Amino acid sequence: MSAPSLHDLYLARQRIHGLVRSTPLELSPSLSRHLGTAVYLKLEALQTTGSFKLRGASNAIAALSNEQRARGVVTASTGNHGRAMAHAAAQLGVKATVFLSQLVPANKVQAIRDLGAEVCIVGHSQDDAQHAAQQHADAHGAALIPPFDHPHVIAGQGTLGLEIIEQLPEVQQVLVPLSGGGLFAGVALALKSINPAIVTHGISMQRGAAMHASLQAGCPVEVEELPTLADSLGGGIGLGNQHTMSMTQRLLDQLHLLPEASIANGMRHAYQQERLVLEGAGVVGIAALLDGLVPARGPVVVVVSGRNVDSAQHLRVINGGDA
To answer: N or C: which end of the chain has fewer CB within 10 A?
Structure first.
């Protein structure tokens, strides 16, 4: 399959209508004061399953033929994609199997089970889980839907970008969490296709940022997957990456890597100033603004990507721990 186009994003929006929410875009007075220009939060954390991943999962499953749906779907995930796949599969009457590594937080594992998917815990990295998912697909004929490097997944995530530019046509800069690149590639494709002058910022963590390492190397590389508050941004991009790396290379203007203390600060700010309970990966854009990494040229939109944080971890962070 070829990389998605802007047309594919509009097709995706038709497919997932009624399966996902159109999420609000809200002005942040505190961040606007901090930056000195208007800052808006795209609250994808309010999506049905608590993260943006439902868009890509729903589009990918909805695009399958009836014969493919009958054989079921399989994926590997750091948590949020698996939860989205389980939810979308249940909505569309499809059996889902989700492979997770031992690094995935227990709350995310249980949430996937609660949605009716079969959960398999394997290995110590996203790459281990991805390898096991591929073996399952080969053995059972299930449709393998990866968490990011798939045209229908990218197009589904890109519908978020369409919403941003329709909700705020004058947007100047957009901050997007960057991991495997499905979200970034889809959102940036929407924005740059409609207005190439929009500046795109990819935000990740310093601990095991696979896309950053791969972009520096000029090809996909393996990185050690390390514990991080932004656990949803962990994992490799796949040594056989077909779409997201090249799209990120083409559409990325700035890339920022954050230390753990900055991510913790972003979580505390979200809770104390925005009244939002968010996971580490969901606050990296907020943290980048607080760290002064983005110029005061607005309006600025920050994609707030997910809320599926372990409650005990969140309590420790907002009380000054885990940084």
So the answer is: N
